[in-house]
Each structure stands twice: as structure tokens, then as C-alpha cells.
Write a structure and sequence with these properties.
The chain is an alpha+beta fold and 168 residues long. Helix content is 33%, strand content 32%. Strands 1-2-3-4-5-7-6 form a seven-stranded mixed sheet. 29% of the residues are buried. Keywords: Acyltransferase, Transferase.
Amino acid sequence: MSIRQAAYDDYPVLAKVHVESWKTTYRGMIADAYLDQLTVESRLDRWKQLLSRGDKDLWTFVSEDEAGRVCGFIQGGKCREEGAGYDAEIYALYLLQEHQGKGYGRLLVNTLIQAFRENGFGSMYVWVLKDNPARQFYIKMGGSPVSEKTLNIAGQADLETGLAWDKL
């Protein structure tokens, strides 16, 4: 198990992990028709763009399994919500289903927190669907529920919980 900063050439595998993890994680929470239409091809350009931005306040790390295959990623940066009161935000954390529960997520979060600390961020925030089992993962990692909002995905209202770490 290893963690490294994502490289531009990782865009195809990041698109694959992103789509596959959405399809397994959100099945039963988000409409099947929406999940079924997601494709790796539809995410390729977005990942190319994200990995080529050179934004100093955006970090993307990948986890690799014992065979050196990318099996997950985390992305975060400066808090996107004005007035939220937090410095940094986890934008996305996804792992292939067969690699969940093995410590990859914890290692990815801790790696991102270290990057945040090294860049002067002292607090952190993440949004997670209220029914997502990952919500408990974030709580175990020290996040506290601080807010809720409704998100519309494919015409369906889904409740999200904002979890925060006041001190990293």
C-alpha cells in the first residue's frame, strides 16, 4: 500500500476509479438510471483538466495497492464555501469497492491533512451524502457534523452532511 501525488498520466485510471466507485458506493442512494449512464469516457476530459491546472491550492493523491495499481484517490484544497469558517476542504475521496476497509482511506486523508498543514491550513471541511456509509468513516477520523444541505442529483433531492475538523 502506498500513497503518492497524482501525475497527469493518471487521468485515465482516476476517471475509472471515479466512475466505478460512484456506481458501487451510491447504488441505492442515487437513481440507478443516473449511475448506469456514467462512463469513464465522460470523466476523462475533466481529469485531464484537473491534473493540468497547476493550482497551488489543489492536491490530488492516489493510493496504490501491493501490485502498484491505482485503487483510490483523494482531492482537496482551499475551502470552496465563502463564510464556512474552515480553511481547507476534502473535495473527493473514492476507493474501488474491493479496497475499502483496508486502511487506504485513512492513509489518503492523513496525507491530505499533512499537505494542508504544510501549507498553512488549520481546519478542514467535507460534504458527504447523509446516507453514505463513508459518513461514519469521516466521523471516526475526527469530523464533527456541523451543517446540512440538500443536493439535487439527477432530479432527486439528497441530503448532505457537512463534517468539520476545527483543528488539523
